[in-house]
Design brief:
This protein is mainly alpha-helical. It has twelve helices and no strands. The protein has a domain at 181-277: Alpha Horseshoe (Serine Threonine Protein Phosphatase 5, Tetratricopeptide repeat), CATH 1.25.40. It has helices spanning 2-35, 39-55, 61-85, 89-105, 111-128, 134-147, 152-164, 168-204, 208-221, 226-238, 242-255, 262-276.
Length: 277
């Protein structure tokens, strides 16, 4: 009986030794992964270590498995971030798919992190294509907005792309949204200019009341837009509202006293005042 007991003890000790050996081997792989310089190699190493920890019966193994999963997801998103910083946006999109897959595999909540990176990628693609292909820039800016509809800077950029595409109404809508979302200072100039352009077109079409309205919106966006006063002044004169026209011409000169056409505008004012008498 004593011999049997001794045998059982020996077998138990051998099993414990084997478990310890398996755990130590897993830790060795884990430590090697942690020291790897390449993040892809780190991920591969942590996956290997995770499998080894899962196979051994040490009481600390489950915690190490969980840590491996956490490291894999964290590194996967870190790779995406590195690619975004390096302006490798197409590669970043593919890497983001891998990161999201890892988060889903290990049932980790990475929605906010993924959303932020995806928005950064589409913003980057928009800026990258702004000069060469404003249509693609606008498309990617819209994708970024679909992800984060409260990003005023993206609306501002979308508006700029729409200006390039000569889509005035869409540009105005984007600039107004940007202004609502804390970018009023940055949006003021381009928004005002878009209304001025619409006023110019209205004047040419003989729609003087519309021109007055558009100039009013241009001035509301940017009181320093001198051209808005001059254009509205011309529209008022065409509507036979001479006093209003004179007031706007004088305001034009006040805002832009060194205007190239200052002398001509002063002459116009003098003539309009004389015609009133």
């Amino acid at each position: 009986m004593k011999r049997v007991f001794s045998l059982i003890v020996a077998l138990g000790l051998a099993a414990v030794a084997a478990w310890a050996q398996d755990y130590n081997a897993a830790m060795e792989v884990y430590n090697k992964a942690a020291q790897a310089e390449n993040k892809a190699e780190q991920i591969a190493g942590f996956r290997e270590a995770m499998g080894l920890f899962a196979a051994c019966e040490d009481e600390d193994a489950p915690a190490q498995v969980a840590l491996c999963k956490e490291n894999i997801v964290k590194l996967s998103f870190s790779i995406v971030n590195d690619l975004v910083k390096g302006k490798q946006y197409d590669d970043a999109l593919a890497a983001l798919d891998n990161a999201n897959a890892a988060a889903a595999e290990f049932e980790q909540d990475a929605a906010e992190r993924s959303k932020k990176l995806q928005g950064a990628i589409y913003n980057g693609l928009a800026k990258e294509n702004f000069k060469a292909n404003p249509a693609v820039a606008a498309e990617n800016a819209q994708k970024a907005i679909d992800i984060d509809e409260d990003n005023g800077a993206t609306y501002l950029f979308l508006g700029m792309a729409k200006v390039q595409l000569k889509e005035a109404d869409a540009a105005i809508e984007a600039f107004e949204k940007a202004s609502e979302l804390g970018m009023s200072k940055q949006a003021a100039g381009p928004l005002s200019n878009q209304y001025v352009n619409k006023a110019v077109a209205a004047n040419k079409a003989g729609k003087f009341a519309d021109a007055v309205e558009f100039c009013g919106k241009a001035i509301a966006a940017n009181e320093g837009n001198a051209n808005a006063y001059k254009i509205r002044g011309n529209a008022y004169v065409s509507l036979n509202k001479i006093e209003d026209g004179i007031a706007d011409f004088e305001k034009y000169l006040e805002v832009n006293p060194s205007a190239k056409d200052a002398a001509q505008v002063k002459t116009n004012i003098t003539q309009l005042k004389a015609a009133k008498k």
